[in-house]
Amino acid sequence: MKKNIYLANTMQRMVVLLTNDDGIDSHGLVASYRAMRGSGDIVVCAPESQKTGTGRGFTLYKPIRVREVEFESTTAHATSGTPVDSLLYAIRGLGICPSLVVSGINLGENLSTEITASGTVGVALESASCGYPTIAISLETLGDEEKFEQGRAVDFNVVSLVLRRVADKVLAHGLPPGVDILNVNVPSDATRETPMEITFLERRLYESRIEKRTDPMGRPYYWNVGDIVKDVRTGSDVACIKQRRNISITPLTVDMTANVPFETMTWLLD
């Protein structure tokens, strides 16, 4: 029954699909729903638990379970899989054809070419590959505890306004030619007056390293840590968020082919 309703709505009204990588219980997903309410039929389908760092991964060789859960004033779909699994279930399992896909609001910024590891951007890449205009939106957080607590103490007012403003423009005009995704990042201290910038991806966000540590039993283990890079280029997303404290909008394309004249590479064929 619901599948038919979604299909009928697709023919008549805007349909906005919401997903994320922080899980169905994330307050960022609730904020996204509230921001987009009134823009059309809202469908929520997200992982049932935290899936940060899953990138564009999806599930193979084991079943994906789906359950319906109460979500604000609607029913959402929680999957046992990754963000991409959730997206594909909504599209192929529920049969919807979204006018817009929104991934987020993510707890924690997604900047630089390191975004390929992000589940927030990973599901956006999958959505764009399926032909749907997509917004990935993230809010800078200052501590991991905000992410672990699902954003209960986070103020989503400004980032919600940014999402609705950008989404309304995409729904009205579509994305520019050659653009498949808008990767939007909002600094934690943004206000209604904070400027927006169109940016490009910085090469790196973190100077990462591996720390060797010892557990209480005296056994060694290793921990990924990193410091934010200081030497960044003017106009990059990292410079925008971390230095100028402005809102960053980076246009992305799923075509990762290097933008070089192929004739300059013919020496490889000799």
Description:
With 270 residues, this protein is α/β, with parallel strands linked by helices. 27% of the residues lie in helices and 26% in strands. It has a nine-stranded mixed beta sheet, with helices on both faces. A hairpin with a 5-residue loop joins strand 9 and strand 10 (220-228). The longest helix is centred in the middle third of the chain and has 17 residues, at 157-173. The chain is globular, with a radius of gyration of 19 Å. The termini are far apart.
Short key terms for the protein model shown above:
alpha/beta; globular; 7 helices; nine-stranded mixed sheet; single chain; 270 residues; 11 strands
Outline of this structure?
This protein has 270 residues and is α/β, with parallel strands linked by helices. It is 27% helix and 26% strand.
